[in-house]
Design brief:
Two copies of one chain form a homodimer. By secondary structure, the first copy, chain A, is an alpha/beta fold. The first copy, chain A, is 45% helix and 13% strand.
């Protein structure tokens, strides 16, 4: 049996969730070994005790149950194909690498469109459904700046900030991904298809939920862990004191990802949650896209794409006056950042931001030990 | 010679500033001993080397110089009296205790009106001269809540946020103090006397500068250290990326005082400085007066007055519904805060805020070990 089918089959075993499937796939050399394993062997998987090991063994060797489940899996794959989708499973190399790191990564993502290449850094932009004009303007500003810096923008395709984030990213020619709480066939916030066909064209609509599965309230917080988990950081643009965006922020903190929030008017209901996140030190205040680059720092450099995550148009190198100053300080031989700071009279922290940008623009390359040089042609 | 006159005399010696006068008064049992000290003795004062010791000795024993300076001091005192003012020097018990703690407390404050009693906690509210409507509304909100909580409000009588803070405090029946960069006779921002006579009536106008002295740009940052130094904390309501309010905030940090800032719209120029302060962790975000009570915590409880710092009307105990809930959990016997939290179903941090308020309203009393009881009648 194909391993991806076997993986989906495992998800149908009662008591087995994403965290345990991660444990099983991590323990076995090859997932197909699970079919050969006896109860004793299964109990060696961390987090799996005797009752669960028996349950897995019974399920896989109870012909009727298993056949029924296999039919369900194949049916699901057919449905997915019929709406133009495909699966990306944790067994695949193109599974999102950051999502793989979380405690409970979904074994399988159902994808319509195309996930961004794994080296393109992603950020989540989320917020209240009751977005104010201010929130929408902030969203547009951040998307504009972040797309320029090469980020793909993830959100939840909800009304309000989420929709604004997808829309603004598309307007900037950027890549955007909508992570749904429903199956990828059911886009209840956009039944007319004003937005989602463009998202599929330039990015993807993804979900861990099966096509045709019922949308229950519990699936929203479950989905939120994916929005935070698939990205380097989550930006909450506007939020009430309660709301899904705060759950996404809490997930991001648990997943050891960055959380950002946009400060706002203290009399505005939709800035109460964001101001509170900042006040309590759970989120860093963000006024510009640069604030995010600065915070992500070296973490970002490692994951960063070498060109903007835009579609269609090849990246042309346009440098700001400051970047030009930095470029004049660089040559074919590597120079240390401290020397470059002295040469350009730009302080190291500011310089770091410009160097990020230049690296994104593929104008320079970094070498070990904080040495930088012009990129060879 | 009267010690206060001697103190003013010392301030006229070139090379002797507030920090050195603090060292001298701290070293001597009685300031008049300075007249008996020889150069060798003066050199024992920390921070005073031989050249300065000689200079002090020469000045005090050079009859002509000294007599000329004495005349200037007496003239200054006459001028002060003629505008209805008085002096409060660091030798006096009613010198503001927090100001006494800073590195360079002014030896003498010239006061018109009456300084708040030393046990009344003070907060500074400062901000840009180009205040927006939002900034004025925030100022009014905070003054309203902080006056209720028993704080005196200090500011700089500049246009914009400063004026709004004095005005709002007066409207709430609170005590406000204007700290000037000019002498107390010269109130250049309010020549018509629309505001300052009320400030004097209900608080004070103070300065360390001599009456008739020239107002130079350097006196504003010098004055700002007093605004931060005389208070428990400084609240920046609105500020550009540069401006005097940020200097006051920097002073407050150096003086180990709290700094607060009100977050605002990221597109508003006058919130750029405050958002930045918050972003960089230099200020705590403030959305309500309670946020300040919470941050000041036990430090505040120690310094707090047992009644609101209002003038004229005796404090009547008005309790919020939450405070009434807390009161119902309290009896004549002390109860521990954890037990009270369980009893009232209010979490401890929220409870602490209510308990502060109730203590301020003299409705309850705290006993060692976080026990609370109703106040005995």
């Amino acid at each position: 049996m194909e391993n991806r089918i076997l993986l989906l089959l495992l998800t149908l075993i009662p008591g087995i969730g994403p965290a345990r499937i991660k444990a099983i796939t991590g323990y076995l050399n090859d997932l197909s070994d699970v079919l050969l394993a006896d109860v004793h062997e299964l109990m060696k998987v961390p987090g799996i005790g005797e009752p669960l090991a028996r349950q897995i063994h019974n399920f896989l060797h109870h012909t009727e149950k298993r056949q029924e489940s296999e039919r369900a899996v194949l049916e699901q794959m057919a449905k997915l194909q019929s709406c133009g989708g495909h699966m990306v499973t944790m067994l695949d190399p193109d599974y999102p690498p950051l999502l793989r790191e979380i405690y409970d990564p979904p074994p399988c993502l159902f994808v319509r469109g195309k996930l961004p290449q794994t080296e393109i850094p992603g950020l989540a932009i989320v917020g209240t459904r009751q977005a104010s004009q201010y929130g929408k303007e902030c969203t547009a500003l951040l998307c504009r700046e972040l797309v320029k810096s090469g980020f793909a923008i993830f959100s939840g395709l909800a009304f309000g900030i989420d929709m604004a984030a997808h829309t603004a990213t598309l307007e900037q020619g950027g890549v955007t991904v909508a992570v749904l709480a429903s199956g990828v066939d059911s886009i209840y916030t956009d039944p007319q298809g004003k937005l989602w066909p463009k998202i599929i064209e330039r990015g993807a609509i993804i979900s861990e939920e099966w096509i045709g599965s019922e949308l229950t309230p519990g699936k929203f917080p479950k989905r939120n862990r994916l929005i935070s988990g698939i990205t380097l950081g989550t930006i909450v643009v506007e939020s009430d004191l309660k709301g899904g965006a705060l759950i996404t922020a809490a997930n991001a903190l648990e997943q050891n990802r960055e959380v950002f929030a946009v400060p706002g008017n203290i009399f505005s209901r939709t800035s109460q949650g964001t101001n509170r996140l900042i006040q309590q030190g759970q989120a860093k205040a963000v006024m510009h896209g640069d604030d995010i680059l600065y915070e992500l720092g070296s973490r970002f450099i490692k994951k960063a794409a070498t060109k903007p995550a835009t579609v269609g148009t090849p990246p042309s190198i346009r440098l700001t006056p400051e970047e030009q100053t930095v470029m004049r300080g660089l040559g074919d031989s590597p120079i240390h950042i401290d020397a470059l700071a002295a040469l350009t009279a730009i302080d190291v922290s500011t310089l770091l931001v410009h160097l990020f940008e230049l690296e994104l623009k593929a104008a320079i390359e970094q070498q070990p030990g904080q040495f930088f040089r012009k990129k060879g042609l």
